[in-house]
User: Which sequence fits this backbone?
């Protein structure tokens, strides 16, 4: 990707597609820890121990929030790279 | 030195600091007044956003709410943090690129419609006004609980402080005050949390103590023995679908709240807006991952200290008698067996614990120095004042910028606009104070309103405005109206007219999810059968999608 940065400059459609792809991947993770692990899979995950508590409870009261924080910083970092690749950075 | 004197000293010192910071950051331009001149570094904006976000209710009541809800308390935890991911990925960078002052500004410009602008401005005022009344009340309550002052006096003091730094400093003054307020509130929250974690589990880090000590299994067993819910088991009392709908509504409501969105206008660049959202959530998560831990430790501790004791034994506990006097803790040996017992049913239980006790009594239960108790009072006040200030700015800017400047007097001079902006903050403070002193009966019900409306009105049309170039004026207005009317109808019907929650038994707090979905669908369909937006609007959408040139609007018609 980074080996031919010039060719992508001015490719507005490509930039937007790269952004959307990243957003979709990160939101899929966002939904699977919150709505997945802590809600729709909560009943099966309730039976899986996680140290002294159950896995569903950990996601519901701790884990999903930690993942949220990481997701935002990952997005910011990856977008720094994509912005430069397509030469739209500030 | 008595706790009261210490509290006066610490609260007085923090208030003096807020006033001083507000004075240092007084502004002379509308850009400074509305968006702090786009000059706030991302980390500082993250702290300010966290303080803006965490209200008196987050600070005082949330851990208590969770301790009674158990597992299902997750809808507050995930609901009030997950929205920041949506903000960071779907809203903040593009709105920062757009760069203008308010949310109705974006709605009005993107949908080339003053009708949309006015609807958005009224929505913003309504959401913020309902929210701010609760904050002023919170200030009064903290004063009365910690210092024994009348609630109204506390509200008046709070009004004076907020008015001072918000009128002088606008967004810039508010932002830097919020940075200080975040520091106060997080220290005040963490010290008692670490202490009680250490006492109850032997592990001083609350988050680790929750997962790695055997406190949760012990609380589970204790609750089951008493006939209460099994604490860490999902969906006790609320079904899965309702928990899901509430979580989604709170998440998208968060992402649609104007006082949070405008914080991202204050940073220097699009890149800064992305990182700033990360810092904001990190600072919020510090408190939000601590709250469920306090909920468990404090509940376990309270049950252990109180349940099965004789009335004479309880009278020996200083903190128990103190909080009993405030009415937040009640003991009554109803069956006359000489001891008080906690029971599931409200009419049978002999110990009644108000949820606010969970946070407020922790320093005393953990036998911490009176300085910590004073600090908790200052923290609660910081949380309430910082949230109030952010909301007041939205009310002021909706009237003075979106309505007065954009609609009534577009040729107003810079100094006229600044004067109206300052005047409107003062009016908003007085209105908020009035509702704080005379709380309308519905204050407790309005949280559902604020989030439901933000979710069903702003969130979908802002997202569509950025991600769907074909979205037009007709679609946006139709979507906003249908989403709002449905959501308001359901919440008002459910909360005030005893209407059954007929929509799959979803509660009022969760219906905004469906309102937002309706908004999306109606907007999409209507936009496809009506004319495409004009070319300059499509260019505007192109431009907000690309980071470069974020300071484009600075120096044009706005400076």
Assistant:
């Amino acid at each position: 990707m980074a080996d031919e940065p010039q060719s992508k400059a001015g490719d507005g459609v490509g930039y937007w597609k790269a952004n959307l792809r990243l957003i979709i991947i990160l939101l899929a993770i966002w939904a699977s820890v919150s709505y997945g692990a802590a809600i729709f899979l909560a009943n099966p995950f309730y039976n899986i121990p996680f140290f002294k508590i159950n896995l569903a409870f950990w996601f519901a009261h701790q884990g999903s929030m930690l993942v949220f924080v990481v997701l935002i910083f990952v997005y910011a970092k990856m977008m720094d790279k994509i912005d430069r690749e397509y030469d739209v950075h500030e | 030195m008595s706790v009261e004197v210490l509290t006066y000293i610490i609260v007085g010192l923090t208030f003096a600091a807020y006033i001083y910071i507000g004075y240092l950051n007084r502004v002379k331009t509308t850009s400074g007044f509305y968006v702090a001149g786009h000059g706030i570094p991302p980390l500082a904006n993250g702290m300010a956003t966290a303080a803006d976000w965490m209200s008196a209710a987050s600070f005082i009541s949330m851990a208590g709410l969770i301790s009674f809800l158990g597992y299902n308390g997750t809808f507050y935890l995930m609901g009030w943090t997950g929205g920041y991911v949506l903000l960071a990925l779907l809203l903040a960078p593009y709105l920062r690129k757009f760069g203008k002052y308010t949310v109705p500004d974006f709605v009005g410009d993107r949908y080339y419609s003053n009708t949309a602008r006015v609807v958005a401005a009224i929505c913003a005022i309504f959401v913020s006004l309902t929210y701010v009344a609760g904050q002023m009340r919170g200030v009064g309550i903290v004063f009365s609980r910690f210092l024994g002052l009348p609630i109204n006096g506390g509200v008046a003091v709070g009004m004076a402080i907020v008015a001072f730094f918000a009128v002088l400093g606008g967004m810039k003054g508010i932002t830097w005050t919020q940075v200080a307020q975040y520091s106060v509130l997080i220290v005040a929250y963490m010290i008692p949390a670490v202490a009680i974690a250490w006492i109850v589990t032997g592990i001083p880090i609350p988050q680790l103590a929750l997962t790695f000590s055997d406190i949760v299994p012990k609380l589970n067993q204790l609750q089951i023995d008493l006939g209460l819910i099994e604490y860490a088991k999902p969906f006790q009392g609320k079904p899965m679908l309702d928990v899901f709908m509430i979580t989604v509504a709170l998440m998208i409501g968060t992402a649609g709240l104007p006082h949070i969105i405008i914080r991202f206008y204050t940073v220097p660049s699009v890149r800064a807006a992305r990182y700033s959202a990360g810092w904001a959530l990190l600072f919020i998560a510090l408190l939000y991952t601590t709250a469920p831990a306090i909920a468990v430790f404090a509940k376990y501790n309270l049950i252990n200290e109180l349940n099965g004791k004789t009335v004479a034994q309880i009278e020996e506990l200083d903190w128990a008698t103190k909080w009993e006097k405030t009415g937040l803790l009640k003991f009554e040996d109803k069956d006359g067996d000489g001891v008080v017992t906690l029971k599931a049913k409200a009419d049978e239980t002999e110990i009644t614990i108000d949820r606010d006790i969970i946070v407020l009594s922790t320093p005393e239960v953990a036998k911490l120095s009176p300085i910590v108790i004073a600090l908790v009072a200052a923290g609660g006040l910081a949380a309430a004042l910082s949230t109030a200030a952010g909301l007041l700015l939205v009310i002021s800017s909706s009237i003075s910028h979106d309505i007065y400047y954009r609609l009534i007097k577009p040729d107003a001079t810079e100094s006229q606009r600044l004067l109206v902006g300052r005047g409107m903050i003062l009016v908003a403070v007085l209105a908020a104070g009035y509702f704080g002193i005379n709380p309308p009966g519905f204050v407790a019900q309005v949280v559902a309103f604020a989030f439901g409306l933000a979710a069903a009105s702003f969130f979908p049309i802002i997202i569509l405005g950025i991600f769907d170039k074909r979205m037009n004026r007709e679609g946006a207005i139709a979507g906003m109206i249908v989403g709002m009317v449905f959501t308001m109808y359901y919440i008002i019907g459910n909360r005030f007219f005893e209407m059954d929650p007929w929509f799959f038994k979803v509660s009022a707090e969760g219906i905004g999810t469906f309102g937002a979905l309706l908004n999306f669908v109606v907007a999409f369909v209507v936009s496809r059968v009506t004319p495409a937006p004009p070319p300059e609007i499509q260019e505007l959408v192109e431009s907000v999608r690309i980071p470069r040139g974020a300071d484009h609007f600075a120096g044009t018609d706005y400076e």
